[in-house]
Write a structure and sequence with these properties.
The protein is an alpha/beta fold and 295 residues long. The protein has one domain: Alpha-Beta Barrel (TIM Barrel). It is built from 11 helices and 11 strands.
Length: 295
């Protein structure tokens, strides 16, 4: 296995406010105990070859790989022309992944829009993913569908947030160029057991987001199962240092190793900055290296 880091705690600075450049993030993360840096397509300020070559060189200068491009395809838009734009956008991200030397490009279902039925949404998503898949296979890029909660810049949560919808989509797509990006914390946000989901998708996991969730002070696990706002977000949970939250990482890694998983694990960390990412990496490193580790 290999370990990557994702700049979850700097998304506003990198994407919304543009107060941090992608190159500043790469330089900042260079001394983390990781093998690569996962990128989010929104952190890129150009898609020209010259710019992408500079991004590739910035990784190489620090002996880091860019294994995974994090994208948020939105295939549940009711207008067919809008879905077409999303398909083409995802194909462009496949090209970017290949240009940067990556092997995996994330794909999502889309937003859980009011008025879009489960049946219709599933049909749109499967159709769009299959079209992108024909393209990505030709580029040698694996599409990794995440059991997702919500993109930072979306209005609504993930259409396939719940396990049954997620599996209905995944089970309709059979290709060596398609697999699952497993995120245990997102299962918690869906009010479900992350280990139960892992058991059902373990043979299809191609990448993993290592994140953790913590109950806010004064709250209990019983409340978690009962408290949910109108958009599906469990507000009594917060991101935090990996290994100190609700996920059972020894069990997760044991299961992945039993099925022969040897891919990339990317830290999607809390909101407290680079030192929290470092602590998460130090917790995960023994698992990545195959050394027994305890919480």
């Amino acid at each position: 296995m290999k370990l990557a880091a994702f700049p979850k705690c700097y998304m506003d600075e990198l994407v919304r406010d543009r107060t941090m450049t992608l190159f500043q993030w790469i330089d900042m993360a260079a001394d983390l105990p990781v093998d690569g840096l996962e990128l989010y397509d929104g952190t890129l300020t150009s898609f020209d070859d010259a710019y992408l070559e500079k991004v590739r060189e910035a990784h190489a200068r620090h002996e880091l790989e860019m294994p995974m491009l994090c994208c948020s395809s939105d295939f549940t838009q009711p207008d067919a022309a809008d879905r077409r734009k999303e398909v083409e956008h995802e194909k462009r991200n496949v090209d970017i992944t290949a240009r940067l030397g990556g092997k995996f490009c994330r794909v999502l279902s889309g937003q859980r829009r009011p008025g879009v039925s489960r049946q219709q949404g599933v049909a749109w998503v499967v159709e769009c993913i299959k079209e992108v898949l024909e393209y990505s296979a030709g580029k040698g890029i694996v599409l990794a569908m995440e059991n997702h909660y919500k993109d930072n810049f979306w209005t609504y949560p993930e259409f396939a947030q719940k396990q049954d919808v997620f599996l209905e989509i995944v089970n309709q797509i059979d290709s060596p160029w398609f697999g699952v990006q497993y995120d245990p914390s997102n299962a918690i946000l869906a009010g479900e057991d992350p280990l139960d989901l892992l058991e059902k998708v373990k043979h299809r996991v191609v990448t993993m987001h290592a994140s953790d969730r913590h109950l806010k002070p004064g709250h209990t696990i019983e409340e978690l199962r009962a408290v949910e706002d109108s958009l599906g977000y469990a507000a009594i949970l917060t991101h935090g240092e990996v290994g100190k939250g609700m996920n059972n990482y020894p069990h997760i890694f044991r299961t992945l190793r039993e099925v022969g998983f040897d891919g990339w694990v990317s830290i999607e960390d809390g909101l407290s900055g680079i030192e929290e990412i470092r602590a998460s990496a130090e917790f995960l490193r023994p698992f990545i290296d195959g050394v027994d580790a305890k919480r």
